[in-house]
Amino acid sequence: MDEFDRLEQVSDVEWVLPPHDRMTVPGRIYADRETIEQLRREGSDEAQWSALRQVKHVASMPGIVSAALALPDVHPGYGFPIGGVGAFDLDAGVAVVGGVGFDINCGVRVLRTPLERARIADDIERIGEDLFRSVPAGLGSSGTLRLSVEEIDRVLDEGASYVVRQGYGLPEDLEFAEEGGRMSGADPAAVSALAKQREFKQVGTLGSGNHYLEVQYVERVLDVEAAAAYGLREGQVVVAIHTGSRALGHQIGQDYLKELGAASVRYGLAIPDQEMACAPIRSPEGARYLAAVAAGANCAFANRQMIAHLVRTSLERSCGLDPRDVGAVYDIGHNNAKIEEHDVDGERRRLLVHRKGATRAFGPGREEAPAAYRRVGHPIFVGGTMGTASYIMRGTERGMQLAFGSGIHGAGRALSRKKAAKKYWGDEIVAALRRDGIRVWAHDARGVAEEAPGAYKDVERVVAAAETAGLNRAVARLRPMAVIKG
Q1: Domain range holding 98?
Q2: Is 409 a catalytic residue?
Q3: Which of 20, 75, 409, 443 is catalytic?
Q4: How far is Cα 448 from Cα 25, in angstroms, rounded to an integer?
């Protein structure tokens, strides 16, 4: 009997994999039937990983609490499924490399502007062209900020706050960033010299793959109270920045895959595959890995902060905007491991929560949210595709109970990059989007093909499943006008 034969449907959007084999908790998947059927097809394809099997693996790890979770944008990843959440007891649990991945704190920052869609529609070509020239993008791209070894260490320790103090951004940006743009517990000494070397010229660069910068407009407000708190209105132009810790984060992942792989053997931890390399949270190896993750997260915060500065400079040049009028809605990541407090079976507990391709989505009342957002819960950003809608959503009280305050982060892939590149042509995608009124600038045609709208699931279905389950609530639907890709 395979995992799909064991899967039990609880509701239209909730499925449970009961504990079996080495599982100590159930697997719980929040997704519609179409997504489950897609996972079933992928699981039967020997060339693909099985996301459901990965849920089973997470549910078998030492010290996991309540359930191994998969959110509506779930698809296979390295170790944890993408869209996977696992919370671990601090004494009995483990820190898992595959629970964070290689793009540590990849995330999204959204900037709101005073511009209206109608005002800039005829100028979008000029605006997009300026942004394309202003924000370095593409594989191996270099930024204008050159850092010494000492300065790299300060970025890894201080995150976005270091960049703001250098004059790149506004002090209030830090208030509207997860963790204030600086994750505590970072130790630059836990990051290898090679990882730091790879970052010397990459702060303020977009990168490649699924990273993007988009000029969008608010097509529809869906939650009036939350939208007002976030400073959003229909017709308003916003800019979304999606990128992470670049080569530094990837090198941290590679380094600790080896280091924690060896630690797994030393501590007698049986792991289902090498991507689930782990160490006890309280162990020296586990603590060192988490310090490196925090450092990588700070690098990502600094990167998005620098890009936000470049966007403001570009919009000042192309639209005459005062940079102070381009405010941060929020900055939040979706590949992380954080110690948080959660209620479990009526008991308040401190847990290490891994979110892989999932974002923190705390509901109303949590002190971690900016004061201006505390009444409604903080925003999360759900990327669609170059040709479809994206969403701003928020955390809910039910999401706190069901998923440790976690939320979806995107539509989720329907095709692997390799399959998408075989099926689509980048130039044809760019031309088709242009006919739909969406301008695309890209450094690599294959990258566009890999990120074709058809390579992703329907974001409307994913958002609907998250809402139906009560995990997250939609605040606003956004549409792209200009897209910058690596």
Answers
A1: 3-414+456-485
A2: yes
A3: 409
A4: 40
